[in-house]
Amino acid sequence: MGSQEVILLGCWFSPCSHRVQWALKLKGIHYQFMEEDISNKSPFLLKHNPVTRKIPVLIHDGKAIVDSLSIIEYIDETWNHVPIASRSLRESHGSLLG
């Protein structure tokens, strides 16, 4: 189970950022939200997502995870005390979950 600092880079109007925030809240994970200006991307965002330069980005234990569905899958596997999706759902619809 993860215990290091969790940072979410996102934007208040991004549905993908909201999706990740809801997953973190559902799991009861304390996190720091860093608002990004998508028209003027911060060096911190560019450092952690230099390829696509998009939000959301979850940073946990020094590791950056990008793409909201991949982030949610990571959250579900790392903090597995409250599953977001059942195992059978992940197996049958794995392509939808990342």
TrEMBL record:
UniProt cross-references to PROSITE patterns, sorted A to Z: GST_NTER
Top EC class of this enzyme: transferase
GO molecular function, one term: lyase activity
PANTHER family tied to this protein: GST N-TERMINAL DOMAIN-CONTAINING PROTEIN, S-TRANSFERASE, PUTATIVE-RELATED
Record keywords, A-Z: Lyase, Transferase
One protein family per Pfam: GST_N_2
Reaction equations catalysed: RX + glutathione = an S-substituted glutathione + a halide anion + H(+)
Protein name: glutathione transferase
Domain GST N-terminal: 4-83
Source organism superkingdom: Eukaryota
Organism: Ricinus communis
Protein's UniProt keywords contain Transferase: yes
E.C. designation(s): 2.5.1.18
